[in-house]
Design a protein that fits this description.
Blueprint: E1 12-17, E2 22-28, E3 36-39, E4 44-49, E5 53-58, E6 64-69, E7 79-83, E8 86-93, E9 114-119
Antiparallel strand pairs: 1-2, 3-4, 4-5, 5-6, 7-8, 8-9
Length: about 160
């Protein structure tokens, strides 16, 4: 069903020449659930990979021009847009809440969703990675049940 990914890679990103009917380039990274690509008229492919990588690739040669690990998983495909002549690339990362949570609540969310927006001349620092998920205490005789999450509006922060 297409070219094999590069050696040692689970998935890959390939460029295909439809006129010559041949593979143009093949990079590791991609596949699985999440992530995606967006291509621009300026010879760029922006790729978001579910392992937390965002990269800019030259569309003609497959050369990785920029890559950063953003310390989130559960990645969404990138989009590009322009405001006042300046191009931006944006995508979401983070897992959010489990599908069985209904309604608003104040429970802590591991790997909280976050919107990332990049521009060519950007200089801002990336946010810190999320803290590691807490390991649940073992259940059994004498185990202390977890404290339920508070219900109602969040307390004001000052």
């Amino acid at each position: 069903m297409g070219p094999e990914p590069p050696a040692g890679a689970r998935g890959g990103l390939q460029a295909w020449d439809p006129v010559k009917q041949q593979l143009k380039w093949n990079l590791e990274g991609g596949g699985g659930i999440g992530g995606g690509t967006s291509t621009t008229a300026g010879n760029l492919v922006f790729q978001v990979i579910n392992d937390g990588r965002f990269r800019a690739i030259s569309a003609d040669k497959g050369e990785v021009l920029y890559e950063v690990k953003i310390a989130r998983t559960g990645m969404a495909a990138p989009i590009t847009y322009e405001v006042d002549g300046k191009q931006y690339v944006a995508f979401g990362g983070g897992l959010g809440r489990a599908a069985n949570v209904q309604g608003p609540n104040n429970a802590k969310v591991d790997n909280a969703p976050m919107m990332f927006v990049f521009t060519l001349d950007g200089t801002a620092e990336l946010p810190p990675p999320p803290p590691p998920a807490a390991t649940p205490a073992p259940a059994g005789p004498g185990a202390i049940p977890p404290v339920p999450a508070p219900v109602g509006p969040a307390p004001e922060q000052r």
